Amino acid sequence: MWLIINSLILISACYYDKEDELYPPNSGPKSNVSFSADVIPILTNNCFVCHSTAAALGNVILEGHDQTLIYVNNGSLLGSIKHESNFFPMPNGSAKLSNTLIETIEVWISEGAKNN
Ligand code: HEC
């Protein structure tokens, strides 16, 4: 009996964890996304290893607003992180970014991809 109760607790704990991960508090699509505070950290953590001025794989540099805007405007920034066909899936060789991170970049672009 104790085992059953114990595993029930464990199972519900897992569900809770999962929900917590899918809908973490204070996250998800928000407005007024900031390039410097929100977008740069995502690029730094997930993309700079290959797309900084020091390492420009595929000749793609995502360091600085001017450079990043090139890939916003040609659609490949969003296309690649959303794994859309016609684009190379990014980050190359790693798991897709979380929905929260993708949505943050998507909202930033929809708000005009400002250098804010
Ligand atoms: C492990 C290295 C690596 C990482 C990490 C990486 N990329 Fe790339 N990326 C590449 C390579 C290599 C190419 C060129 C693909 C080719 O030409 O085969 C590329 C190409 C691109 C392109 C052009 C795609 C196209 O379809 O024209 C974009 C945009 C891009 N990456 C964005 C990103 C973003 C955003 C991230 C982070 C979320 C990221 N990359 C992470 C290696 C990487």
Strand content: under 5%
What oligomeric state do these chains adopt? single chain
Rg result: 18 Å
**What is the molecular shape?**
globular
Number of strands: 0
> Gap between N and C termini, in Å?
58 Å
Order of helices and strands: HHHHHH
Summary tags:
0% strand, mainly alpha, 116 residues, binds heme C, 6 helices
Summarize the structure.
The chain is mostly helical. The protein contains six helices and no strands. The protein has helices at residues 2-22, 35-46, 48-51, 65-73, 76-81, 99-110.
How would you characterize the overall build of this protein?
The chain is mainly alpha-helical and 116 residues long. It has one domain (29-110). The chain contains six helices and no strands. The chain has helices spanning 2-22, 35-46, 48-51, 65-73, 76-81, 99-110. α2 crosses α6 (99-110). The longest helix is centred in the N-terminal third of the chain and has 21 residues, at 2-22.
Secondary-structure topology with pairs:
Blueprint: H1 2-22, H2 35-46, H3 48-51, H4 65-73, H5 76-81, H6 99-110
Bound molecules: heme C (HEC).
The site of heme C has 21 residues, from helix 3 and helix 5.
